[in-house]
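Please fill in the sequence for the structure shown.

STRUCTURE ENCODING:
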């Protein structure tokens, strides 16, 4: 195999063979193909696309570029969820205990936040003592005992994707459906669960801004999962505005616990029940109606909250914080963003709100930034809400007073107003299974 020939082939829109893809990924992972040739290849894929067969082969090659997790001991019950990333997206904290309370075996690896998006691992680390790194045997033992474990992504899982993603990030080739689909699904396949539910976000705070692209991405990932023998479904959901009211790690944990207590924002509760039902349907062999009933009962009857408490304790987290969320405390400095005039909120750019939260200290500007669990934003008002001049729209929290002004400006600029009524946008656009 000569990398030059493969680039030439893809440049002219020809399909690469399974053998060529396998060799290319193995050689790139081993450091035998330089980044400049691989970036030419990713750009050729960006413009020429890939057939389904090529995407399946690429996913398979990346999934097998490192360790794979064996969850066969859990039979058909093992289940994972993945969100393509958003702002205020704390669904994993709510969905996974609901599913475990219904009998699913949730074995999940999650990421950290970068840029405007948050990460589940950072949120969980708001609990003093919570361990996001477990040995493989500890991880599976916890899933066996508790039905639920969430850890950080292992560096040895799909290392080809790790390298390729870093390259795509700096060569403007992230937003390619074959490359995103193979990147996400290679990690999900290597992580070993029998069922996978994908939450594909669509809108200003997501990779996919338009519904057509989000549907195409979701359908591609579902086909990849099925071609590899996994029960796979995707939910396409709205990320034109942040999910719920809280953006920031400990604040999101508190909001997630509100939902588990039967309170909390309706949009968050709705998307969580949609995702949890799909996961229970696939992993426990229930009909859609039975799964919807079981998940609603687990949430409303307190079983999901009890499972959440058990899970936090199993992973070393201080469960006193579950019983008394005020222990998380409040950041030292706060500010309010107020409505400049009377009107109705037309839109709230999720990416910009996420960036404002990052500026306050809730997210990372670079991989090595240290995050502050108490920093973040409460969105008091959201699109379609009516406001009077001077009403509080958002409250900002930080330990670094000097960030408040810049963050407040970002929040103000993220909002648009109108004097007409605004129709609520749908939260779940489509479910693909
Ligand atoms: N998330 C991933 O893991 N990979 C992508 O390519 C995009 C989002």
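FILLED IN BY: designer on duty
SEQUENCE:
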């Amino acid at each position: 195999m000569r990398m030059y020939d493969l680039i030439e082939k893809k440049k002219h829109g020809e399909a690469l063979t399974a053998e060529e893809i396998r060799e290319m990924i193995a050689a790139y992972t081993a450091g035998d193909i330089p980044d400049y040739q691989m970036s030419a290849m990713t750009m050729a894929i960006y413009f020429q696309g890939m057939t389904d067969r090529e995407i399946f082969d690429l996913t398979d090659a990346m999934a097998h570029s490192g360790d794979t997790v064996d969850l066969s001991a859990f039979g058909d019950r093992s289940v994972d969820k993945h969100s393509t990333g958003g702002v205020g997206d704390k669904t994993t904290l709510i969905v996974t205990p609901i599913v475990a309370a219904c009998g699913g075996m949730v074995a999940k690896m999650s990421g950290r936040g970068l840029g405007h998006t948050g990460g589940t691992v950072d949120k969980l680390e708001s609990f003093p003592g919570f361990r996001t790194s477990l040995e493989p045997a500890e991880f599976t033992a916890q899933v066996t005992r508790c039905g639920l474990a969430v850890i950080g992504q292992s560096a040895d899982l799909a290392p080809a994707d790790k390298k390729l993603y870093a390259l795509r990030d700096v060569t403007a080739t992230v937003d390619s459906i074959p490359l995103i689909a193979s990147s996400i699904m290679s990690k999900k396949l290597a992580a070993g669960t029998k069922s996978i539910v994908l939450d594909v976000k669509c809108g200003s705070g997501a990779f996919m801004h338009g519904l057509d692209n989000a549907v195409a991405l979701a359908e591609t990932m579902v086909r990849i999962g099925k071609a590899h023998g996994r029960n796979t479904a995707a939910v396409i959901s709205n990320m034109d505005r942040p999910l719920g009211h809280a953006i920031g790690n400990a604040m999101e944990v508190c909001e997630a616990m509100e939902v588990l207590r039967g309170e909390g924002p309706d949009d968050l509760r709705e998307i969580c029940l949609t995702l949890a039902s799909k996961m229970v349907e696939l992993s426990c062999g229930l009909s859609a109606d039975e799964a919807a009933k079981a998940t609603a009962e687990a949430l409303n009857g307190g079983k999901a909250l009890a499972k959440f408490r058990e899970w936090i304790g199993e992973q070393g987290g201080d469960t006193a914080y579950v019983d008394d969320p005020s222990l998380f405390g409040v950041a030292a400095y706060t500010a309010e963003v107020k409505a400049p005039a009377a009107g109705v909120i037309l839109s709230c750019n999720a990416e910009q709100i996420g960036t404002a939260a990052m500026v306050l200290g809730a997210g990372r500007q670079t991989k090595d930034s240290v995050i502050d669990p108490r920093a973040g934003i409460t969105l008091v008002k959201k699109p379609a809400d009516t406001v009077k001049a001077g009403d509080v729209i958002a409250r900002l929290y930080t330990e670094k007073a000097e960030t408040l002004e810049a963050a407040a400006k970002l929040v103000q600029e993220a909002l648009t107003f109108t004097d007409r009524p605004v129709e609520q946008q749908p939260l779940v656009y489509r479910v693909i299974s």
